[in-house]
Amino acid sequence: MQKFNSPLSAFEHWETTTPNKEYLRQYVNGELIIYTFKESGNQARRIATAIIGFNLPPKSKIALLSSNCAHWVMADLAIMMSGHTSVPIYPTLQAETIEFVLDHSEAKAIIVGKLLDFESQKSAIKNMPIISVELYGIKEEITWENLIAKEEPLQNTIKLDAEDLITIIYTSGTTGSPKGVMHTVAGFTNGAYNLMQVTPLKENPKFFSYLPLSHIAERAVVEIGSMFRGASMTFAESLESFASNLEATQPDVFFAVPRIWAKFQEKILLGMPQKKLDTMLKIPILGNLIKKKIKKKLGLTNATYIISGAAPLAVSIMDWFEKLGITILQGYGMTEDCIVSHGNLPDANKVGTVGKPTYGAKSKLTAEGEICILNDCLMKGYYKNPEATAEMFDDEGYLKTGDIGEYDHDGYLTITGRAKDQFKTDKGKYIFPAPIELELSKNPNIEQICIVGMGIPQPILLVVLSEEGNKKNKEELCKNMMNTINEINPSLEKHEKIEKAIIMSEEWTVENGLMTPTLKIKRSQVEKIHMPMYKSWFDANERVIFE
Question: Which of 122, 143, 344, 401 is 20 to 30 A (C-alpha) from 52?
Answer without folding.
Answer: 122
